[in-house]
Amino acid sequence: MISKISIKDDINEDSGFGEVLIGMNIYYFKQIFNESKQYNSKNKKDWNLYTSEGLLHFVHLDYKNYFRLDFNTVIGKLSSVTYKLGYKGKLWSKVKPGIKLKKLLKYSPYEEYEIYDGILVFKEQTNILFNIESDFYGDDNPEYNEIKNKVIIEITIRNRELGYYNNQYGDIPELWAKSKPNEIGLKN
User: Fold this and answer.
1) Sorting pLDDT into bands at 50, 70 and 90, what band is 114?
2) How far apart are CA 75 and CA 154, in angstroms?
C-alpha cells in the first residue's frame, strides 16, 4: 500500500513521484480510494474520485487539485499522473507547473518540440505532456515569440501503452498481450 504522498516530491520523468509509480497495480491505492469517500475535519473531500465521460475504463483520483492519478481499469494499472498548479515538486530540478514556457525550454534536456492544441510534447520524450495556458487552441506549432511568456499549467507523466484502449479493430498494446490474465483482472 502507498504509505505517504507528498505534493513536494520531485517528479520523475519515467516513473511518477515518491512512492507513486506509473504502472503500479490499482490495489496499492485501495486506502486512497476508500478515503475518497470520506470528508476531512473541514467537511471537504481531500480526494475526488471520478470517471471520464464515456470512458468507463479510466478512473481518476484528484488530490486537492494538486495532482491527478489516472488508472486504466481494464488492466488495473496507474497509467499517468498530472501535476497541476500548486504542486511543489519539480521535474529536472527546476520545472514545475506555473513556470513560463521560455523557462521550460531553457531547463529541458530535450530540444525539439511540437505543440498541438496547447499541449507541448518533446520529440525525444513523448511520455511527458506540458499543458500551456492558451488562447491558441487549435493552432498547431504557434510562433515562439507569441507563446514564450505563457504559463505551463499542467505536466503529465504517462505510459502510452498503459493509457491505450482501442478495441475497435482488435488492437491491443504489446504490454497487454504479454500479460497473464490474472495480472489484468481476468481469470484463467
Assistant:
1) very high
2) 25
Cα-based distances in Å from 2 to 28, 30, 89, 156, 184: 6, 9, 18, 20, 20
Alpha carbon 57 to chain centroid, angstroms? 16
Q: How confident is the model at residue 43 (pLDDT cuts 50, 70, 90)?
A: low
Phi, psi of 184, rounded to the nearest 5 degrees: -115, 20
The domain limits of the chain are 11-161
Tell me which CATH code domain 11-161 carries: 2.60.460.10
| pLDDT band, residue 135 (cuts 50/70/90) | confident
Nearest to 71 by CA among 100, 135, 123, 28: 28
Sole residue written with cell 516530491: 9
- Burial class for 19, CB neighbours closer than 10 Å (0-12, 13-18, 19+): middle
DSSP string for residues in 113-138: EEEETTEEEETTEEEEEEEEP-S-TT
Model confidence at 80, pLDDT cuts 50, 70, 90, reads: very high
Cell numbers for 177, please give them. Answer: 498481450
pTM of the model: 0.83
Pair 113, 121: CB distance under 8 Å: yes
Cα dihedral 61, 156, 76, 175, rounded to 10, equals: 180
